[in-house]
Specification:
The chain is of the alpha+beta class and 403 residues long. It has 10 helices and 25 strands. Helices cover 33% and strands 25% of the residues. The two termini are 37 Å apart.
Length: 403
């Protein structure tokens, strides 16, 4: 028999980085409110947040009029401070952005312009200076250095935020999958609750939940699988992140080197079109209806070919071979060790929002809501970096809607 719980003022679905930081911001604004965060998994951040690369981005990739640009610089600063205050792992290693051909030079000019517009530090250094910092660099045409890029341990941060939430009397519960609406209530597993306001921060499943409330009518999430190769040894000489100049017409930053908070070196990621939402490995998370829906949307993208999707799909599928990923990384710098020392790490899934009207990807953060519910539909990278100021902004938007 279903149990009826007391009324909850704010119910947040999803205990990832966005759900937890929104809960903490709501507590700051509403000291007496009852706030509950629920998640279908056993622990926080089992999906995008916990499988995040851990890179704290600086904020020079995004147009100045975007929400991503607005929050990345401040989010970087706020997350750094949070890690210092809590004694959490952080590697302030910085990042090189390397141009390897003439075509990249125009992209570098655009990155400099965006850094200036967003008030982000981005230094131009000579190839010689870059090689002094990273001797393994190949033949760079030009190099930018981002001193505020850092890496953190996402799992540590999520555990700390959940602890903060519980200490502030926010109810955080796991094993509570969203089962749908029932009258004025919401079914969560075997329970039924009647929240005053519902906040949907469910990541990969946010669009499906939003449709239950009449939102996400022309939007759908399409999953992209990200895989990294991890270097098995710690004795390597690459001291920082190394990225290519990205194609800013799509949301993926290209194959790069990531130096994690504990000094592990990774190469990746891929951006492979996944066949269902939780397609991490094998048949994990398989749902036939989900796969059919995803394949239908991918088929439409393949047919209409927005942002050169066909070419991107074939390029990404080729990266599933270890040798291919290592060859791409070697355009930037020589990978240390033999190929056998590189092993596949756990996959991540990017919950990328798609406009179904024209089959294009939504490049910025996106949300929809009214006086009863609020739905965070696109919080992809750099969502982790942006979490603190983005949560403040989202709560401001909710306050306007519920006046």
């Amino acid at each position: 028999m279903n149990k009826t719980s007391p009324t909850i003022d704010f119910l947040i679905i999803g205990a990832g980085i966005i759900g937890i930081t929104v809960a903490l911001e709501l507590r700051r604004r509403h000291p007496q409110a009852s706030i509950s965060v629920v998640d279908k998994e056993a622990t926080p951040g089992c999906h995008a947040s916990g499988r995040n690369s851990g890179v704290l981005h600086a904020g020079f990739y995004y147009p100045a009029d975007s929400l991503k640009a607005r929050f990345t610089r401040d989010g970087n600063r706020m997350m750094r401070r949070y890690c210092r205050e809590r004694g959490l792992s952080i590697n302030p290693c910085g990042k090189l952005v390397v141009a390897t051909n003439d075509k990249d030079l125009a992209g570098m000019d655009l990155l400099r312009e965006r850094a200036r517009a967003n008030d982000v530090i981005l230094e131009t250094i000579t190839p010689g200076e870059a090689r002094e910092r990273v001797p393994e660099l190949r033949d760079p045409r030009a190099v930018l250095f981002s001193p505020t890029t850092a890496t953190v341990n996402p799992g540590e941060i999520l555990a700390s935020l959940v602890k903060d939430a519980r200490e502030q009397h926010i109810d955080v519960r796991f094993h509570k999958p969203y089962r749908g609406r029932q009258g004025n209530g919401i079914r969560l597993g075997n329970d039924r609750v009647e929240p005053g306001y519902v906040i949907n921060a469910a990541g990969l499943h946010a669009d499906a939940i939003a449709r239950d409330f009449g939102f996400s009518q022309t939007m759908a999430i399409v999953p992209f699988k990200g895989l990294y190769l991890k270097y098995a040894l710690k004795n390597h000489a690459i001291p920082m992140n190394i990225y290519p100049v990205p194609d800013l017409n799509n949301p993926f930053l290209g194959v790069h080197y990531t130096l994690t908070a504990d000094g592990t070196l990774k190469i990746g990621p891929t951006a492979i079109p996944a066949l269902w939402r939780e397609h991490y490995h094998g048949f994990s998370g398989f749902k036939a209806g989900d796969m059919l829906d995803i394949l239908r949307r991918q088929g439409a993208m393949f047919w209409h070919d927005p942002f050169h999707f066909r070419t991107l799909a074939f390029q990404e599928l080729a990266k599933m071979r270890r040798g291919a990923l290592l060859r791409l990384a070697s355009r930037l710098a020589t990978p240390p060790g033999p190929a056998a020392a590189w092993h596949w790490g756990p996959a991540g899934i990017r919950a990328q929002l798609l406009r179904t009207t024209d089959h294009t990807l939504v490049m910025d953060f996106h949300f929809e809501g009214d006086q009863h519910s609020f739905h965070i539909l696109n919080a992809v990278s750099p969502g982790f970096t942006c979490a603190f100021p983005f949560a403040q902004f989202l709560c401001e938007q909710m306050a306007v809607l519920t006046k």
